[in-house]
Amino acid sequence: MRPILDVARDLGLSTDAVEPYGRYMAKVPLESFPSQRQDTPLVVVTAITPTPAGEGKTTTAIGLSDGLARLGKRPVLTIRQPSMSLLFGQKGGGTGGGKARVVPEAEINLNFTGDSHAIASAHNLLAAMTDAAVYYRAVPGLAASGLEWRRVVNTQDRALRHVVTGLGGRGNGPMRETGFDVDAASEIMAVLALATGYDDLRARLGRMVVGFTSPEGKPVTAADVGAVGPMMAILKDALKPNLVQTLEGTPALVHTGPFGNIAHGCSSVLADRLGLACGDILVTEAGFGADLGLEKFMHIKARSSGLRPSVAVVVATLRALKYQGGVPLKDVESPNAEALAQGIPSLEHALEIVRAFGLPAVVAVNRFPQDAPQELAMVRQAALRAGALAVADSFAFAQGGEGARELAQAVLDVLQPVPMGREQPAQPRFLYPLEASIPEKVEAIAKQVYLAGDVQWDDDALEQAERYAKLGWGTLPVCMAKTPFSLTADSSVKGVPRGHAFRITGVRISAGAGFVYPMAGEIQTMPGLPRRPNALLFDLDAQGNVVGL
Question: Is the pTM higher than 0.85?
């Protein structure tokens, strides 16, 4: 690895402008940000609907950045910080794979610069101060029954999903039924990812709702219980983007990691703005597939921040497309043109979503050794027919930046001035106006993105949506909480079903982050460890190196 101060100099940042965390990591204070240039292109990497076969979105984003560097550009990569709680369970790390990785891997995947710990500390401080406000009757009308702010931990622990706190008499109260989430699911993580500075962070933290008074149902916020100041103190350094590098020394900003199912699942606005100011092209990643990740990137992150993508890269593999076509996971590496043909509509629909937002698209076929030439040709032809401006093979996993040259060149070709005879891409657009009602916004996404035929609201969910509108939250964007593994709310349904019923079972508010999230199906914010968790593989060797990652 290159010394991080050398990487910072590549961004035009002096040694005094960054705060090193050891030799290979650093934070960039907000006052060190250069002025953002208006013409720096932003490339957002998305994918088909995720499958257990894997698409390699992060690996492709990293490889694309290294490929752009090999073509003489000065790219900057921004990706989410991995969740340590998921790493010790069943999910892999969040630093890419093969020769397309960000480093130092162990530090990024584990404690990193302490951002996640700061978020958990601020979150749990707010929970304690809220309970204290009830105990001392500091907020008129706020009782334990009206509290909605749960606590968080950074470990998957199914025993904490449903708990009772405050047992042992009034001196230990207030007693209430509650539960824990993992730290990545904290609203503070989503707030940190969307904040544009300390003043904005303060305002967003103050708006977070911790409960409601009884009987009038007035929202009680973090500001009402006096928790904003101490939370700001805890989060002082966590707001600063983290600078690391790829295996090939390309600058990478790894900052914030909000859940992609109940939040927007993107790296921070501040990291993107820093990358746009310091590089000549920014590569970022949207969580999950185009149907859940790109939609939220556009409606929540881009819309609130003013960030405007120039092109979307849609990642697909033959393996994943065959899985979407009905092939069991154990058979996805075998040639099967029929199953591939059944799965290709997943890629076509991802491209439809990209086009719906007015973005030009490049398809990246993440290559595996078993890929058959005739099947690759099928995907290429289908992608071009569906509106992709280019289709490129990516060998980033095996070859790093050299294996992503073709993809990098395809992206640069799309970013070139539009030649005569080709239509100029439209400015990014959105699928609903913010002035639309919450049910209208949900219907727009359900029908245009998830291809539902009908949206069915549980009575309680519809009443909650109407109540939120009366409280002034009706003009917020919606952040659909659903499984990422299907266009429907049922994770077992593959492919591109059309006309299905889309059921909304509840509605919740993230007033600080700035969105309402309708619940489509059951969403687990506290996963449980599997029978054989990844944690069993981890250890420290005699030289002090983390093994098992």
Answer: yes
